[in-house]
Amino acid sequence: MKRFFLVLTFLTLCLMLCASASADSAPMQLMRMNPLAFSKQPTRIESVTPTPDGSFVIIYFADSDTAGMQEMRLELFDAAGASLLSAALGDANLLEEGALYPRGQVILEKNRFVCEYYPDITTMEVYKQRIYRYTGKQVQKPTTKKLNFGAACYAERVGDYMFRMQAHSEDESDASPYRTVKLSHIASGKQKKLYLYDWSFCAFPDADGNLLFAQQNERGNLEIRQYSASMQETIVELDSGYFDDNLSYVPSAACIESTAYLLISQGFSKYTLLTYDREAQKITDSRAFSAAEDGYFIADFKTAGSSLLSVDAHWNVPLQRRELHIYLLGSDWTRTALPLQHDFCLYVYAAQESITTVEADGSTYFLCQYVLHTSGISSGEM
Predict the structure, then answer these.
(1) What is the distance between the alpha carbons of residues 251 and 312, in angstroms, rounded to a whole number?
(2) Would you call 172 exposed, middle or buried from its count of C-beta atoms within 10 A (0-12, 13-18, 19+)?
(3) 106-124 in b/e burial notation, b at 16+ Cβ within 10 A?
(4) Contact 136, 152 (CB under 8 A)
């Protein structure tokens, strides 16, 4: 196995040299490409979480040693793709109808991360917790914990923050119209509890270390909230005309300087794109928007420096997987497809001028880092 990855690394370097020869004319240049040395061959990637020190935590399924079962696993990789930590979380039968489906999630803290494994995602009343340093060192032995129904949370990292959204609260007999969200700043540990009316809210960061939320509030209006690292709160409420019905929501948004771009979904592949001036606190532009191709949908907006990116996705039916495509949006809203090294991209992370992806070629996965050479939309061009 070690010889295999040495050969693979050599071939990767050759590909990078070839790619750099045409970098001057390309909008994006490959800077680094490293194979991910999984301890077991993945059959499905569930999640990828970047840590504050540049490593990545990946939760995935692999064939279990028990016949007919799949094993959910945790793997921590450094920026070069080397495995720092590998752990088995639990087995699941993914083929049997009605079988329990597990959930694994990562919660980032100042100098460590917590892995939670729920054997049954439909109740999330029991979970096993593991705590590790970002170096991969285990802080404490795994512990099993029990929760009341509706007390569990879905955890997600956005920018410099973690938010934990109350899970299954809608199934309670006396369900509140508001969903509890626990917001925490990763580096400082400061926390704030929020109550959001729109269960499909969108959280997105800006370049100044703030976190914003966009939601349709209880009055049917577009509401934009901003939180600083010290948990200072600012709330702006805008006109209600941007939501056609109760099915409309904000699936994605992004900030470039003092401008925010908000995507309003009005059905599959039907969108309205709003340009929001954060200083004037008003919408300055509204236009119809769509994914790049029929059958695609917009999975996310990203920013890399002063560039706005649209990450489009489609479901590959024969291979039964979701595939991502990255487009640079120009000042006239034209799209430029950003070429990747492999046909299958399953994860995109953007910071400053760089774009990091997890891509696959057959059964081999790669951690790729690119740098943009051109700017698309910037707040000064609008």
Answers:
(1) 12
(2) exposed
(3) bbbeeebbbbbbbbebebb
(4) no
Sign of the alpha-carbon dihedral angle for 12, 14, 15, 20: positive
- Give CA–CA dist 243/266, Å, rounded: 8
Cα–Cα distance for residue pair 51/126, rounded to 1 Å: 26
Does residue 86 contact residue 39 with C-beta atoms inside 8 Å? yes
Confidence check: pLDDT of 19 > 80: no
SS (H, E, C) 336-348: EECCCCCCEEEEE
Distance CA 233, CA 11 (A): 50
Decide: 239 and 262 in contact? Cβ < 8 Å. Answer: no
- Amino acid identity, residue 301? F
How many C-beta atoms surround the C-beta of residue 6 within 10 A?
A: 10
pLDDT the model gives residue 243: 85
- Six token digits for residue 229: 């690292």
The full DSSP string for 205-258 is E-TTS-EEEEEE-TTS-EEEEEE-TT--EEEEE--STT--STT-EEEEEEEETT
Neighbours of 216 (CB within 10 A): 21
Is the pLDDT at 7 greater than 50? The verdict is no
| H or E segment to which residue 312 belongs | strand 307-316
**Could you give the CA distance from residue 64 to residue 67 in angstroms, rounded to a whole number?**
7
The amino acid occupying position 59 is: I
CA 183 – CA 194 distance, rounded (Å):
7
Q: Using the structure block, give the residue that is written with the tokens 């790049």.
A: 292
173-198 tens-digit pLDDT? 667 889 999 999 999 999 999 999 99
Q: Are 114 and 129 in contact (CB under 8 A)?
A: yes
Contact 326, 335 (CB under 8 A): no
Q: In the block, which residue shows the tokens 């979904």?
A: 265
CB-count exposure of residue 25 (10 Å: 0-12, 13-18, 19+): exposed
Confidence grade of residue 171 (pLDDT, cut at 50, 70, 90): low
pLDDT digits (tens, 9 = 90+) for 99-131: 999 999 999 999 999 999 999 999 999 999 999
Task: Report the C-alpha gap between 193 and 187 in whole angstroms.
Answer: 17
Other Cβ atoms less than 10 A from the Cβ of 258: the count is: 14
Q: Are 187 and 160 in contact (CB under 8 A)?
A: yes
